Amino acid sequence: MSDRHDAAKVDLRSADIAQDRRRELARLFPEVRTGDGKIDFDCLRLALGESVDVGRERYGMSWPGKADCFKAIQAPSLATLRPCREESVNFDTTGNLIVEGDNLEVLKLLQKSYLGRIKMIYIDPPYNTGNDFIYPDNYGESLRTYLQYTGQADAEGRKFGTNPETGGRFHSKWLNMMYPRLYLARNLLRDEGIIFASIDDREVISLRVLLNEIFGEECFVATFVWKRKAGGGDDSGYVAAEHEYILCYARDPERASLGAVEHESPAMTAKYSRSENGRRYYLERLDKTSLTYNSSMDFAIECPDGTSIFPPQPDPSNPTTIWRWGRSSVAERRNELVFDRDRRTSEWRVYTKTWEPLQGVTPRSLLVDKEHGRNRDGTRELSELIGPKIFNNPKPTKLIRHLLNMGAKEKDSIVLDFFAGSGTTGQSVLEQNQEDGGRRSFILVQLPEPTGREDYPTITTILKERVRRVVEMAAAGSSLDAGRDIGFRSFHLAASNFQPWNADTSTGPAQLEAQLELHIRHVRPDRTPEDLLFEILLKEGYAPATRVAAASVTGRDIFSAGDGSVLVCLDRALTLDVIRAMADRSPQRVVCLDEGFAGNDQLKVNAVQIFKSKGIVFRTI
Q: What is the DSSP letter of 140?
């Protein structure tokens, strides 16, 4: 049977990052393509008007293992995300996701469905203390090590452990862990997207250089300094560290911006101390000291009593003070000036009214007010929800909501946190939606790190229970509006539901027979139809949050997803009537199991032609 009469296969691999980049280069610079479709990098340099001497030293950051990071990034994933309804809340209606698994593997799996869709990323990664760093050393085998870690595979060769400073590669291991994850995360951001990354003094310099390399130095937005505690003991050996950092970068600095924030801090209340027609303002003096004195801005202004006032000069022989407004502005906007006498000298002073912005104030780099929260606030919030001493130093929702106000002002934003911890980001998104009527959704990813507790054996159990409790409060009308999206879908990282053909297997008769059997029946026996459905959708580029509905055609069960744009039939005994009935629904694409054709090549050829005649993409798996 000719290939042109056969159905295309569903690609079970995650997106090929390197290939996507090569295609984009070829699209932008068609002249750099070679005859065999590869990229001629010398031509690319010429197209860019540059000449690079590879033998010369160049500014950058290097560390042992950096080259392996790119291998990890480019290695496609054959994993999947298995839905867990029993752990979810409002599974069929929610757009929120909680994924248990190694975030490197999960970020790869999200490339097809969330590429360029995330508005804001917040991460609070391991701070490299040497005690809580349990990501694998071999970053190209994250699925295998994750399966070993969670008891889904033979534990022999398990590679999770701590990162002691005595190991000799203390910083390198941390950089190797962070680089591929940040690289993949950047792909998911919208052009207007923003990433915030919490960090402390140990790795703030490394993280800054890392983000400069991945995002570009021009994409740096700000370094926020967050006051995590007030007072306390000397926990650094020399100085009592009261702060942490939050690095902020934009996907595209020309399109991204930080939203103005509402700020009712005591300092701001004191500053905007006057009010007129319900709007607050403060008086700002019209005179200012300037390093570039201009005599045209040093002129007399008439006061209410008929006297005149010049900009006050501390040293008349060396004038440095001028008016902020020129002569014409003073004349045209005379009614906006406020004259008041100095209480000490009774001399006139000239002011203007500076109004509090209607849309909030420009964000400040110092997050030191109580309104930004402290560590103890995060601990108290979690204790009130699920019990005391459950999780060490969770971030407070006040802090994350402040970041949401800057990075996810749009009310339909998707927010990603792939070091989700106890779930502060999830709670913050739900509460922010309640406050401003938003429809934001979250994606939380967390490795099931053991806690040593019987009630909450892993961090992911803490995470899910926390979000579940917040949802229960919403349903009870306690603090959240039950009419909004207040659920979450739980997924677990797992090996693919479909056992792939292994070309490296032994060519002995028994092994070859086993491989041929997989070619016919390659679905793992312990997987459910819903497991298969969500892997097919994921690998076809549909998000795990896609709404799915069960349907029936000619007495056979099918699934409809994406408002009917894709139909998935997992029936093992397809008929021509089923094929025609699905085609009559006019979806964009149809996916069926190869097993469904039971070796009937004629039926498969007919299916290909029927779908092709109606412009429907047809794939089998």
A: T
Provide the pLDDT for residue 38.
77
SS3 393: coil
Amino acid residing at 293: Y
| Residues written for the chain | 621
pLDDT for residue 239:
83
- The ranges of the chain with pLDDT < 70 are 1-6, 30-33, 35-37, 43, 46-47, 49-60, 129-142, 153-170, 231-236, 261-269, 358-360, 477-483, 501-521
The reply to whether 231 falls in a domain is yes
Does residue 7 lie within any of the structural domains? no
Domain count, the chain: 4
Distance (Å, whole) CA 404 – CA 411:
10
Domain boundary among 335, 355, 375: 355
- 586, 541: one domain: yes
Cross-strand partners of 123: 197
Question: 535: which residues sit within 8 A by CB, 6+ positions away?
Answer: 12, 80, 81, 496, 497, 498
Stated as kind and residue range, the H or E segment containing 222 is: strand 220-227
Contacts of 43 (CB under 8 A, 6+ apart): 29, 31, 32
Q: Which domain holds residue 526?
A: 509-620
pLDDT, position 267: 62
Same domain for 474 and 338 = no
Could you tell me if residue 520 is inside a domain?
yes
State the pairing for strand pair 366-367/589-592.
unpaired
Q: Give, to the nearest 10 degrees, the angle between helix 66-74 and helix 17-28.
A: 90
238 shares its domain with 108: yes
Taking the C-alpha atoms of residue 138 and residue 75, their distance in angstroms, rounded to an integer, is 13
- CA 314 to each of CA 175, 284, 323, 434, 593: distance values in angstroms, whole numbers, following the listed order: 54, 19, 15, 54, 86
Domain-located, residue 533:
yes
pLDDT at 560: 97
Q: Is there a single domain that holds both residue 227 and residue 374?
A: yes
Number of Cβ within a 10 Å radius of residue 162? 11
184 and 245 in a common domain: yes
Per-residue burial over 296-326, b if 16 or more Cβ lie within 10 Å, else e, is ebbeebebeeeeebebebeeeeebebbbbbe
> Residues 31, 147: one domain?
no
Q: What local confidence, expressed as pLDDT, does residue 359 receive?
A: 66
Element containing residue 298 per DSSP (H, E): none
Q: Distance between CA atoms of 197 and 125, rounded to whole angstroms?
A: 8
